[in-house]
Structures are given as C-alpha cells and as structure tokens.
Amino acid sequence: MIEMIIDTYTSENLMLKNSKPTHPAQFPVTIRRVDQTDVALIDEMHNRVSKESLYYRFLGPKKTNIDSLRCLCIDKTTSKVVLVATVQEPMEKVVALGYFMVNQENPTTAEPALLVEDRYQGCGIGKRIIKEMCSQAVKMGIETFDIFVDPSNYPMRHLIQRSGLRYESKFNNGLSDIRVWLHPNGRVYS
Ligand SMILES: CC(C)(COP(=O)(O)OP(=O)(O)OC[C@H]1O[C@@H](n2cnc3c(N)ncnc32)[C@H](O)[C@@H]1OP(=O)(O)O)[C@@H](O)C(=O)NCCC(=O)NCCS
Fold first, then answer.
1. Residue 98 Cβ contacting ligand 1 at under 6 Å
2. Is residue 189 part of a domain?
3. Is the entire prediction scored with pTM above 0.70?
4. Is residue 116 in contact with ligand 1, taking CB distance under 6 Å?
5. CA 21–ligand 1 middle distance (angstroms)
6. pLDDT in tens, 118-160
7. Does 187 map to a domain?
8. Which single residue of 14, 27, 60, 142 has CA 20 to 30 Å from 173?
C-alpha cells in the first residue's frame, strides 16, 4: 500500500502496482513534503541510483551535491514544491524525489523533476508523485509544465502520454522538449 501523508493535505492508501520481483506484493510508502532532515537521505538515494537513471534525471552527469540539496530542501525563497517518497527498511530511506520550481520570468510555468530509485521503479510511485505535483501546481496558479526528456526515456514519455493531459513535444538539441497543459482542477491519470 502507498500511504499518502502530504503535510495537512490528503492522506490516502493506494495499491502499488508491483512489477519488481524483489519487492513483497505490497509495501508501505509514504509520500510527503520534504523537510530539512531529508537532505542526507536524498544524497544517499542519489548515491544508490544507477548511472542510467541519473543520466535520465540530469540528462548528463549528476548535478547535485549536499549544498544544492540543502538549498532545495530548506530554502523557502524560491517558489517550489518538493516531495519525497520514503520507506522503512527498517530505517527511513528516501526512494524518490519529485519537485517543481516556478519559472520566475513566467510564473504560470514550472519545470518539474522526478527520480525514483531503480528498485522502486514501476511500482506506481512516479505516477503518484506527478499526481500530487499537478494538484499542488494548479493551486499555485501554474498552467503548464515544461519538461526536457531524453527521447529514449520510454517510462517518462509513457507517464506523460498516459496522463490524459494535453501536451506538445518538440525535438530540441537531441532532447524532447515537452510542454504539458495542466487540467484546471489539477486532475491527471483519471
Ligand atoms: C521515469 C520514472 C520517474 C517513472 O517512475 P516510476 O515510479 O518508475 O513509474 P510508475 O511506476 O509510476 O509507472 C507509471 C507508468 O509507466 C510504466 N513504466 C514504468 N517503468 C517502466 C519501464 N521501465 N518500462 C515500461 N513501462 C514502465 C508503468 O507500467 C506505468 O504505466 P501504466 O500506468 O500504463 O501501467 C522513473 O522510471 C525514473 O526515476 N527514471 C529515471 C529518472 C527519470 O527518467 N526521470 C525523469 C526525467 S524527465
């Protein structure tokens, strides 16, 4: 089951679609807002993730370090939403990070980023984080997400295609430059 705990927002239980044989049929995952105690846990996750996933996330070498993660998790000056998915194994581990930052020049647009640790990919965590990001973004007046995706990143392209949202994709410098129009109710994957 995925247990949703996002600040004071919704809390709900979802069935994980478990495609990885390394997992038990169901396991609890908490998806919540990031806090400053997550900095080290996110750094550890980046160190566990495969080179391929890091490449798809950063479209090149890893671009974060402990200082940039501190800034991401603690700095309140940038308009953003940062979510983590955690499991108890048995200590708490961050297994996914999703966030978006509002484009300062065009505040109706934001750029989202998402990374799910390899062992937990294909279980529905990415989809659930995107759902929450869309819902939060619409509440903040954001109308579109701009996403750069490597054309060979089938899982991410599939996630966008299945979202039910209108999108346009352009080929730009070897990447898919995708603009997604959020639903005014924040609805996605319905
Ligand atoms: C892309 C990514 C975020 C998807 O997250 P996830 O938690 O694995 O995705 P979900 O389990 O929510 O799956 C959502 C859909 O994608 C499909 N999917 C996920 N991984 C897949 C894979 N490896 N192959 C085929 N389909 C896949 C699922 O079957 C599901 O489709 P469905 O709802 O039609 O059944 C994750 O794979 C990841 O972190 N990849 C590396 C970093 C990255 O690419 N970030 C995005 C940069 S733009």
1. no
2. no
3. yes
4. yes
5. 16
6. 988 988 899 999 999 999 999 999 999 999 999 999 999 999 9
7. no
8. 142
* Matching residue, tokens 């080929």: 171
H/E run at residue 46:
helix 38-48
- One-letter amino acid at 162 equals R
CB 171 within 8 A of CB 177: yes
Instruction: Note whether 108 and 143 are within 8 A (CB).
Output: yes
Q: What is the pLDDT averaged over residues 164-169?
A: 96
- Is 186 a domain residue? no
Give the Cα separation of 12 and 134 in Å (integer).
17
Terminal-residue alpha carbon distance, the chain: 19
Residue 125 inside a domain? The answer is: yes
Query: Tell me, what CATH number does 19's domain have?
Result: 3.40.630.30
Ligand 1 atom 7, closest CA: 126
